[in-house]
Batch of 2 targets.
Target 1
Amino acid sequence: MSTLILRILKVIGKNRFYNLYKRKIDDPERAILNFHAPPYNTKLDIAIINGKKREHVGSRGVRDLIEKYRPLLGLHGHIIESPATDKIKNTIVVNPGSLAYEGLLKYSIIVIERKLEGLLVKYKIKGAAILSG
């Protein structure tokens, strides 16, 4: 779990943190979350430990938040050797990774589709790609 989220949870408690998030966002399914830490147990959080072993090292707090509120999209980083897209329930999560040490920029392009369903506007991730150049 990220240090900032741990500090917030220690100070205000998990339920209060979720309630603050919920109050700030009217419709979480239209939200795009950007956390430096990737969610735990996804393709985005696999780190190489001691040069060999690959382990999930992401944030359980970020994953809990995504599972509970199901935002449209999660943008993440931190684990540079784990560029990937994945899905938690209906939420697409993306970590473009990094090859900066090789002088190469890695980035994501995400296409969001806006559809009118009756009187409601719905958003859907139409595609997500990780590119470099």
Target 2
Amino acid sequence: MSEGRTTDPVLVFDGDCAFCSSCVQFAERYLRASLSSADWTGVPFQFADLAELDARAGGTGLISRERAEQEVLWLTPRGDVYGGAQAVARLLMRSGGAWAYLGALLTLAPVRPLAALGYRWVARNRHRLPGGTPACSLPRR
């Protein structure tokens, strides 16, 4: 990904995972249809210039292959990086409409730990979910 600096957020996901790719396709189809604000770009980490994206985030290592293998990442135009459930929340908030309310709910202090727990469960079991394949399994740490 070397289009240079963009004003659109970037969603970095595991392109080898059929479940993850299906989720991004859903977001591209249904969440973009409700967009009242600017667009966003979804890119599989396998094809992304992670060093460039990390540089946009301040070069602090917040965007790495290791992290992208574990969770979806949302990079804002300002360089803020959100991972996992909070990345999903930011995507939903960006989409507007009822999706934005759901995203905002996921960012509330009492809900955040539950959202993170739910995200981790989905991430660990994504190979068992509809559309998932053995390639969706998380790498062992």
